[in-house]
Amino acid sequence: MTTSVQNEKLITDMFAAGAHFGYSRSRRHPSVKPFIFGAKNGMEILDLEKTSIELEKAKEFIKSIAKTGKQILFVGTKNEAKKAVENGAVSIDMPYVTERWVGGVLTNFPEIKKRISRLEDLRNKREKGELIMYTKKERLLIDKDIERLERNFSGLVSMKDLPVAMFVIDPKKESIAVKEAQYLGIPVVALAGSDCNLKEIDHAMPGNDSSVTSITFFVGQVTQAFKDGRAA
Q1: How many helices (H) and strands (E) in the chain?
Q2: Does domain 109-156 have CATH number 3.40.50?
Q3: Which of 37, 121, 158, 229 allows an S-S link to 47, with CB 3.0 to 4.6 Å?
Q4: Domain 3-106+162-231, CATH homologous superfamily name and number
């Protein structure tokens, strides 16, 4: 398949996924202006030909990461993104955050590792039946502690070191995560809606970041690029 045919298919697939829908002009961030194709029914339409170019650049970057054997942290806490982000990350054994971003996940990683270790320790003790020595009330409190730790950190158990890159759905919503990555010099790849500041992202893919189908499409592209890079 030639590059031009591949690109046409990519654009067609993005269009089918609804990736071209932006927000209203009043919500558009100035950095997105070059990617606006037009408007329809009060909503701006993104130029998928330009998006396809940025997507291919991002995929090449993801492939280069995969070849190193290092980790990419997936982040997507909005309801439309949670399932796709978790499924995508799990499919390539990468860490992920789909609930609230806990401040310091990156910038205070040593402390976060302690919480993850506690989660693993409590899980192991529960599985081995070692919690039976505690009173019913104590076990109830431990179960609540496990539940809280799992909600915040279950997707991070496999992250033994800082990731070398981060993949984000909607960097405006995940601004704290993005700022932590920037502070540490960790490159950010992101599906960014028309209300996002593309200049804050190392590899921004302008597209619909509020639709399940669009998000699922981009997550699929990123995970497949990772698989291709790992197999190369």
Answers
A1: 7, 7
A2: no
A3: 37
A4: Glucose-6-phosphate isomerase like protein; domain 1 (3.40.50.10490)
